[in-house]
Structures are given as structure tokens and as C-alpha cells.
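[Discussion] Sanity-checking designs against the backbone

I'm trying to build intuition for which residues belong where. Below is a C-alpha cell string of 156 positions. I'd appreciate it if someone posts a full sequence so I can compare it with mine line by line.
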């Protein structure tokens, strides 16, 4: 989902760039409606992809937030039964419950890293494609011989 959203983001940026660079041509040819509909179509697809990513994160983030709290509830439930039987004391129960509260932040931080991982992986793939590209632009062999101003002419 993150890869699709990233790809659509690039498409929308490309369309916007083309439209801005070719604004005079688009107006001259009367293609404003076509360009607007092309942009609207890709922007809607991007919105839908971002909503899908948001929905996935909406399921994932609360689960990671709930894990430490569920652990604390389990410790309290089991600890209460064990305390009633005399196997542990109040201090032992409080100590274990406190340890679970201490690991809550690292678990959330791990969740944030996992949530950003798909976007980071997609971004890295795009950067790597540019870095791995082969070939170069050949330089021309011609040099200017006259250091003075140049003359430009056009024929119709």
C-alpha cells in the first residue's frame, strides 16, 4: 500500500510539473479541461491510497498501544490470584506491574519504527534506482572559436 501511495504521489507531482511547465501550450491548445481531469483522476487515486494506508495504520497503532496495557492487566489479574493464595506479596505485584509500564514506551517506539518502515523502504528503492543508474551524458566535441557575441537567425 505504501509503495502504491508513493508511486501515485510521484505521478501527481509529474502531472503538476508538466502542467506548470506547459501552461502556455495547454492554454493555446485549449486543453485545460483535459489537464484538470487528468490531475483530478490521479489526485483521487492518491487520496484513496493514502486513506488505505491510514486505515492500516489505524488498525496497527492502537494494537501496539494496547499491548503493554494488556500485559499490565494480565499481571494484575494473575498477581491478585497469587496474592490471595499467599504466593506473592503486594510489593512483588506492584514491582512487576511497574516494569510493564516501563516497557510501554519502547514498545510504542518500536511500533512507530514499524509503521514508517514501508514508506522508508519505498523511498530507498526510488533513491537506489537513481544511484544505480548507468550511463552518462556525452559531452560535445565542438568549441566556440570566436570570443565575441554570437549571431542567431531563424528561417520560416
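Best answer:
Here's mine. Compare freely.
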Amino acid at each position: 500500500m505504501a509503495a502504491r501511495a508513493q508511486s501515485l504521489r510521484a505521478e501527481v507531482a509529474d502531472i503538476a510539473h508538466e502542467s506548470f511547465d506547459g501552461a502556455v501550450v495547454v492554454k493555446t491548445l485549449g486543453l485545460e479541461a483535459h489537464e484538470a481531469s487528468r490531475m483530478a483522476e490521479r489526485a483521487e487515486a492518491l487520496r484513496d491510497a493514502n486513506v488505505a494506508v491510514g486505515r492500516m495504520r489505524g488498525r496497527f497503532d492502537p494494537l501496539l498501544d494496547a499491548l503493554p496495557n494488556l500485559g499490565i492487566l494480565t499481571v494484575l489479574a494473575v498477581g491478585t490470584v497469587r496474592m490471595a493464595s499467599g504466593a506473592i506479596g503486594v510489593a512483588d505485584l506492584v514491582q512487576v506491574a511497574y516494569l510493564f509500564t516501563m516497557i510501554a514506551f519502547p514498545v510504542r517506539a518500536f511500533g512507530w519504527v514499524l509503521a514508517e518502515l514501508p514508506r522508508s523502504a519505498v523511498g530507498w528503492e526510488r533513491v537506489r534506482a537513481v544511484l544505480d543508474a548507468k550511463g552518462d551524458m556525452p559531452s560535445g566535441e565542438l568549441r566556440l572559436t570566436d570570443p565575441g557575441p554570437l549571431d542567431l537567425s531563424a528561417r520560416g
